[in-house]
Design a protein that fits this description.
InterPro entries: Plant_DnaJ_domain. The protein is α+β, with helices and mostly antiparallel strands and 336 residues long. The chain is 40% helix and 24% strand. It is elongated, with a radius of gyration of 42 Å. 18% of the residues are buried.
Length: 336
């Protein structure tokens, strides 16, 4: 009974959220819904996975056990030297921790930490700060996004503002109005909270976010000094995307006005076409009345050259008032 109640509650809450998002009656902050998969049974997890497959943007929370172990400092931290990568598999609702040590020069140039999955696993890239009690407190997290044939997430500490794309905004826009989804495509850009790291050892983690299976991943740490051209390109493209977002906001207003005008003239076109068709139809009907052919109603029409007789006209009698008088007199004479 309890399982059925939880299942119904989960389905109802997700369904209501989906409807609210489609109707657009609530702000995005009030629509966010996070599910702790560690507290769900198999059936409820299947429901969550199904809704996710259907396109409902479902966010998952990080397991309390993982956060607690990190705060207590009881997690195992593997070294991840700059310029190297590590591949592995992490169970769902579990995390693999890595320590990235950087010097002053590397910190000044900038650091990039990226995770990819060729198996398109769902995962979270986490960044922890050192806690005063000796553990690690969660500071940043990036959910994996599908980019081409892989899923990926990255953190870019390059001394300038970088942005991450929240696909939830795009999913809601498409559900609400597929035509306007294009204009909302860049609205999912969210500024990253941290833009630089200081020298020292920094703790990152890969968290398994699949509903059932383990997540396969490759994590790598890079110094931007070896990627100066790429860094400048990223800085430039971020600026271009921000400008484009503002341009799209203005263009959407122009597009809406033009679309309304287009719909107006389209309706006018349909009405005028129907009017012209009706007038021509009436004209053809009037032309068709000029004819000697008796119409189906049985009412005859007078026309020039007609041999038809006037209605009510009968055969003319003979002068003596008897049309067959001549025949009768001849018969009498023969009898005499």
């Amino acid at each position: 009974m309890a399982l059925n109640f939880k299942t119904s509650s989960l389905s109802l809450s997700i369904g209501k959220r989906w409807k609210k998002e489609i109707d657009g009656r609530y702000k995005r902050d009030s629509m966010d819904m996070e599910i702790d998969l560690s507290n769900l049974g198999t059936v409820n997890t299947m429901f969550a996975a199904l809704f996710s497959k259907l396109g409902v943007p479902i966010k998952t929370t990080i397991s309390a056990n993982v956060l607690e172990e990190a705060l207590n400092g009881t997690v195992t931290v593997r070294p991840l030297p700059i310029g190297t990568s590590v591949s592995g598999k992490v169970d769902k609702q579990c995390a693999h921790f890595f320590g990235v040590t950087i010097n002053d020069e590397q910190a000044e140039c900038g650091i990039v930490v990226r995770v990819t999955s060729t198996a398109q696993s769902k995962f979270k890239l986490l960044y922890f700060e050192h806690d005063i009690n000796g553990g690690y407190g969660l500071a940043l997290q990036e959910d994996s996004e599908k980019t081409g044939k892989v899923t990926s997430a990255g953190m870019y500490f390059l001394h300038f503002q970088v942005y991450r794309m929240d696909s939830t905004v795009n999913a809601l826009a498409i559900a609400k109005d597929p035509e306007s989804a294009f204009f909302k495509r860049l609205e999912g850009l969210q500024p990253c909270e941290v833009s630089e790291l200081k020298a020292g050892t920094h703790i990152f983690a890969v968290y398994g976010d699949n509903f059932f299976k383990t997540a396969t991943y490759t994590i790598e740490a890079l110094c931007a000094k070896s990627y100066e051209d790429t860094t400048e390109k990223l800085k430039d493209i971020e600026s271009q995307i921000l400008r484009k977002r503002n341009e799209l906001r203005q263009f959407e207003t122009e597009y809406r006005k033009a679309l309304a005008r287009f719909q107006e003239v389209t309706n006018r076109y349909t009405q005028e076409k129907q009017s012209v068709d009706e007038l021509l139809k009436q004209r053809d009907s009037i032309h068709a009345t000029f004819t000697v052919t008796r119409p189906p109603s049985g009412i005859s029409n007078l026309s020039n050259g007609s041999s038809s007789k006037v209605p009510g006209e009968t055969e003319s009698p003979t002068e003596d008032g008897n049309s067959d008088g001549k025949d009768k007199s001849g018969l009498i004479q023969e009898k005499i």
